[in-house]
Amino acid sequence: MTKKSSAEKEIDIFDLQSIEGVGKATEEKLNSAGITSVLDLAAATPRELVELGISPEKAEELCLKARLLLIESGFLDREFVPATEVLERRKSMQRLTTGSRALDAMLGGGVETQAITELIGEFGSGKTQVCHTLCVMAQLPREQGGLEGS
């Protein structure tokens, strides 16, 4: 698969040698570990590359160049987000009670903040009522199950 970069040169996202600094010897080391494409390299960690005998500086540089190449080529929409960053975001999420213990239990403790929750059901099943309740609950102090919203 080829895409054109901002410099309008053809980039083969499967060819490791399309990354500056990857020659035949480096490509063979990467292939021995199952890293056969730019996408594989972008998903690899520098530590994995160091274990293959690549210097720490070059390992970090190669991973970064692979990610940037995929972003430039339009193959990835945005930069790679490490799992530690995702974990920190998840830790900052809060749960808002719906006012119903049974519904909160089904939702794993309430409705998550920083997420989309979809309510579906028949006419008159209470979807709007749940939404109105959540609006009020978000304004309440924490000791009453709210999020101290304004």
From TrEMBL:
GO molecular function: ATP binding; ATP-dependent DNA damage sensor activity; DNA binding
Coiled coil: none
Assigned keywords, A-Z: ATP-binding, DNA-binding, Nucleotide-binding
Any single GO BP term: DNA repair
Pfam family, one: HHH_5
Domain RecA family profile: 92-150
This protein's name: DNA repair and recombination protein RadA
